[in-house]
Amino acid sequence: MTCDDRRVIVARLCYTLGPSMFFANRAVNRLAVHTALQQLAWCMSGAFFGVYLLRAGLAPSILFLASAGVLALRFVMRPLVLVVAPRIGLRRTLVIGTLLSALQYPAVGLVHGADVTLALFCAIGALAGVFYWPCYHTFFAALGDREYRGSQVGVRQVLMGIAAVLGPAAGGVMLTNFGPWVAFGTAAAVQALAAVPLFAVREPHLARRSPVGAYAAAWNGVCLFAADGWMLAGAMLAWDITMFRALQSRFDQFGGVLALAALAGALGSVVLGRFIDLGHARRVIAFNAAMLCTGILLRTFCTLSPTTVIAIALVTTMLGGMYVPVLMTAVYNASKSSPCPFRFQFAAEGGWDCGGGGAGVSIIAAALCAVGGSPQATILLALPAVLVQAWLLARVYRLRPPAGPARLEPAPSAPLP
Questions:
Q1: What is the average per-residue pLDDT within 271-296?
Q2: Which residues of 365-380 are buried (b: 16+ CB within 10 A; e: fewer)?
Q3: All domains of the chain, ordered by start, with CATH?
Q4: What is the pLDDT of residues 97-146, one digit of tens each?
Q5: Alpha-carbon distance 134 to 46, whole Å?
Q6: pTM of the predicted model, to two decimals?
Q7: Which residues, 6 or more positions from 253, have their beta carbon under 8 angstroms from its beta carbon?
Q8: Is 240 exposed, middle or buried (0-12, 13-18, 19+ CB in 10 A)?
Q9: Of 270, 279, 280, 274, whose CA–CA distance to 404 is shortest?
Q10: DSSP letter, residue 412
């Protein structure tokens, strides 16, 4: 073996071990701490919203309509963030969104029927989403590293996975033994605490006026998020209702299953994120689509015995562990290369609202349940979205001729035909 051969081997080994380098990005690390706390609060109580309202007496059709209503309100109120963020800055706007999110936890405890309390809860959730998500995604897109994007998203998912293991277990126990005010109040405190790390994160530049081509560059993100909303908005609620009923409507058992499923889903996140960084995104996209289709079919047609539902929850969540790194690597890189990452995310979030509430499954699922259909059957409505999104991702990713290991970069943000 020549000296040159040894240098090539060492260089390739260093490239393979590259994930350790992204920990040098302190901004991303602090965002990850914020994300972990935010996810802990959500999993402690937010993950129980649907089943808590179901047990409070709301019919599944009302729950689907409420979900669609939240997304419709978000879409209508979304221009507010365009007015506020350029004037007070992205960090302050994100802090406002974080604190508004904390208010939705005690608000859900007030709901006991399809009345004004439900409308208030939906309005708070919608307003929180308007301020929070575009700013959060802008921070992660602007401050993350393009060459380590898949790994950074993967590590973020692991931290979220840890929170998703601890949160549902704690939330289920608190709801069962201490009632909603303790559970939801604790979640609100954790959510408020999540604002603290944001003050140490440098603020991305935000132009007062929209740069030329900012919204046109976001078209890929709009399409990808619309497919994501179509896939998740109704199917996740339908599966939660199915699991909750199969587990005898017990909060502690439901939380325990969510915790185990989250642990299974976190196992492959970092490895799969690095797999994207090393240049294997096309194979990951194809495998991811196949696993998502399998999961949808299993959840739709499984029997409702507790053992079967638990097994399906673990298997499908584990198979879907690569979904977020695949999607968000493409979205964040396209956002960072766009004329304005904030307006890119603003437009993309609007796509999510349309996919989930308008063209998505929430309204259709509500109609099916209203005429006697099973919530479990509505999960199948997500299947076309998997195929659409796989096609979109294949268009966004493109090969670049490599000098060393094969690399993949998202294609420039151009409108899809």
A1: 75
A2: bbebbeeebbbbebbb
A3: 24-410 (1.20.1250.20)
A4: 999 999 999 999 999 888 999 999 999 999 999 999 999 888 877 776 66
A5: 19
A6: 0.82
A7: 172, 247, 306
A8: buried
A9: 279
A10: P
